[in-house]
Amino acid sequence: MKKKISIIGCGWLGKVLARALLNEGFIVHGSTTQKHNLVELKALGVVPYIIKLNNDGVFGELPPLLEDMDVLILAFPPGMRRDLNADYAARVSHVLSAIPKNFNGKIIHLSSIGVFGLTQGIVTEDSIPKPESFVGNALLQAETYIKNFSALATVVRLGGLVGDGRHPARQLAGKTTISAPKAPINLVHQKDVVSFLVKLIQGNHWGDTLHCVSPTDTERAPYYTRECLENNLAEPGFSQEESTRTKKVLDTKSEDLLGHHYQLPNCRIQDG
Ligand SMILES: NC(=O)c1ccc[n+]([C@@H]2O[C@H](COP(=O)([O-])OP(=O)(O)OC[C@H]3O[C@@H](n4cnc5c(N)ncnc54)[C@H](OP(=O)(O)O)[C@@H]3O)[C@@H](O)[C@H]2O)c1
């Protein structure tokens, strides 16, 4: 029988992941907060639902999305950029409390390397996160809720997402006195994230904490300068001030565990 994967947050990443999972023969149910997205999700082959997680509860059709699922993927963001009062951990806990008792516990939490502080230096999956921001703290709290809920839950901490028209060089182009010119880059391409997650699900590997970040070893100033110049974007200017931003997040597990290789490790704008 085909397995059902439920994705809460069929957005920029969730939609592409849904397409890849459908191609692999899974049944995919997925959510959006907006009615106008239902048609697009349906056209992809996703069984679509409107679900909006709020601080004080859930609006929409959560029970049918969660019914008889084999894997649950949490792919909605903390939401604090849009709403300073967003309580991500509370929103995650509303989902956990709605999960049917007979669920096998296989959850993938798309978390972020934001759980680590900017000055933590080189960190691996074994490093203890010391978040400095509200978002980082909320993500870490949500990770803890999910891990406590199920021993089979896997947390995947993603680097900054690029691809499909998204790239931070576009925001930095033409800016001046950008901070931390020597800080490491912690990006990952959408295509690599999708193949990582498909391998994770197919490999049936559960109950772990993984990092999905490209292994590129370069500094912000040369990296963004080259990206801007090679793509006819205005050259960015960097501050000369010393910075304590040293965070470099390593993925030390996925190659051995999942046979995953980063296809687009340099996360270039030209990669699409
Ligand atoms: N963006 C990054 O650089 C980055 C870095 C690290 C980790 N991540 C993680 O990667 C995952 C996917 O990110 P993304 O960039 O694809 O996000 P996105 O494009 O903003 O899509 C998020 C999806 O979640 C839905 N959503 C947003 N708020 C919601 C709420 N309150 N209740 C229910 N659904 C909600 C959105 O609904 P609509 O369809 O209505 O928009 C959309 O389907 C997230 O878990 C995020 O935390 C992202």
Describe this structure in words.
It is a single chain. The chain has 272 residues and is α/β, with parallel strands linked by helices. It has a single domain, classed as NAD(P)-binding Rossmann-like Domain (Rossmann fold, 3-Layer(aba) Sandwich), CATH 3.40.50.720. 32% of the residues lie in helices and 19% in strands. The chain is built from 9 helices and 12 strands. The strands form 3 sheets. An 8-stranded mixed sheet has the order 4-3-2-1-5-6-8-11, sandwiched between helices. The model has no long low-confidence stretch (mean pLDDT 97). The chain binds NADP nicotinamide-adenine-dinucleotide phosphate (NAP). NADP nicotinamide-adenine-dinucleotide phosphate (NAP) binds next to helix 1, strand 2, strand 3, strand 6 and strand 9.
